[in-house]
Amino acid sequence: xxxxxxxxxxxxxxxxxxxxxxxxxxxxxxxxxxxxxxxxxxxxxxxxxxxxxxxxxxxxxxxxxxxxxxxxxxxxxxxxxxxxxxxxxxxxxxxxxxxxxxxxxxxxxxxxxxxxxxxxxxxxxxxxxxxxxxxxxxxxxxxxxxxxxxxxxxxxxxxxxxxxxxxxxxxxxxxxxxxxxxxxxxxxxxxxxxxxxxxxxxxxxxxxxxxxxxxxxxxxxxxxxxxxxxxxxxxxxxxxxxxxxxxxxxxxxxxxxxxxxxxxxxxxxxxxxxxxxxxxxxxxxxxxxxxxxxxxxxxxxxxxxxxxxxxxxxxxxxxxxxxxxxxxxxxxxxxxxxxxxxxxxxxxxxxxxxxxxxxxxxxxxxxxxxxxxxxxxxxxxxxxxxxxxxxxxxxxxxxxxxxxxxxxxxxxxxxxxxxxxxxxxxxxxxxxxxxxxxxxxxxxxxxxxxxxxxxxxxxxxxxxxxxxxxxxxxxxxxxxxxxxxxxxxxxxxxxxxxxxxxxxxxxxxxxxxxxxxxxxxxxxxxxxxxxxxxxxxxxxxxxxxxxxxxxxxxxxxxxxxxxxxxxxxxxxxxxxxxxxxxxxxxxxxxxxxxxxxxxxxxxxxxxxxx
Length: 610
Fold this sequence. Notes:
Layout: H1 14-21, E1 27-31, H2 37-50, E2 59-63, H3 66-78, E3 85-88, H4 89-104, E4 111-112, H5 116-126, H6 133-148, H7 153-157, H8 160-163, H9 171-187, E5 190-191, H10 193-206, H11 208-217, E6 220-223, H12 231-241, E7 247-251, H13 266-269, H14 271-274, E8 279-283, E9 285-286, H15 291-301, E10 311-312, H16 313-319, E11 355-361, H17 362-378, E12 386-390, H18 396-405, E13 410-412, H19 422-435, H20 443-453, H21 466-479, H22 490-503, E14 512-516, E15 525-530, H23 545-560, E16 563-574, H24 586-590, E17 604-606
Parallel strand pairs: 1-7, 1-8, 2-3, 2-6, 4-5, 6-7, 9-10, 11-16, 12-14, 12-15, 13-14, 15-16
Antiparallel strand pairs: 11-17
């Protein structure tokens, strides 16, 4: 008779299965984009729990965003391991800080400061410095970098010459402002986000009783996105572990795009050196993208440190129609109930070659992209399956205007969060209140009745604008009913909506996404348009030196690997009011995509060199 725990391995490919069965540490999983890394590590944890190797209460899965942590918890619960803790570094550290502070120091822990700008503004006033908001934001960024890099003010002062100072501040003024900020926090008994990591690490390091309790509580650690670990996070992780070796890390050096914030791929690339005897497994079979997109991604990163050689599972399926492989998107094989699940078949390869288009200027580029997207929608593509990616937020305005003119619904990432919108807060409150008096009627009727009272209707209003945006928000909530399992009650639905709000687990909006390359890591779409691929934008003008340019290359790699089936790239020869012509990004040439040499007065498609 088959051991029930073996069913957790049935839907994994060979490399994923090696990860899942390697229950001892240290283990390093080098996982390329779209290779099913979350699937591999959640099955590893669930297999460890099901086989009795792990006590679920003593396993900690660490990731970098609340949404990713919520996704880990949901998957682990579906796999029969609901008691496993899945948190961000900061959430885990904050819980420990609040627990141990009264025991070690006495009283409640200092209050967490959620916004540095206000205190920095007061510090500047105290020093009689006139500093604009943009400079204050840059100073806040430097504070964050200094702390996650593990540098005191004196050590940071030695780096100022190389890093420069924000705005018009002199080195002396910059250091004085940082010092005044720290003084104000101390006076008010406040911690900022980075202090949480540093103070928690300090308590574990200096208090043997704290270290003993922490290490007794958690015996096994799994860290996702390990290429994004900062020195401060790495130090805390080492303190959590102590002398033990029960550590599994997962990452991709080619997706290191937060070096400016203190992240370092060194810990991933040197894992074997730091942990003698470590096992290393490579996940290189990409289940997300077509072979054409995977080939382009490989060409872009060829020869770079830690670059993996991806191969498209879709191409394997095309070559062998009988080939089966698990999906990167958690197929039915993730469900622990019922009989052994068959592996999920890889999608058949649709080799649509990536296309490069040159435009006269940024307005022509925006209108050209809008026209292409409008044509795709008219051909039956879903708006939510399309994204437009860009390097900096300022590129967004002209694109939003062009897409609006083409009657394309749009959502912009990095603006107001879904659950912070006024109409969404009203809807969540109204649904929770209505769910207290449960009615014996279909879930959709209960939900739609509440939403109709707030102005929603089944028919979308005409054209773009605030009314359409409000309708899109309420409609996204209405569509969540379709995702509920049979028998879901109104009360359960309302509770789930509240949980989504707390973890910022946004529903899918029926709109094309506009987002910066930084903001879309971890996401994917059927069709992706990457705009602004010119020198000065990608790589950005202030990226100087090999390391900075290579980080820009990795940003483009992240953008390329968000696409499943179709990828369109573009650049504009003239940007804004600049007098000088731009040149196409060097990355296009290095990845084998030829640049147009004519037809500068109109868009012209060019396919990549083979």
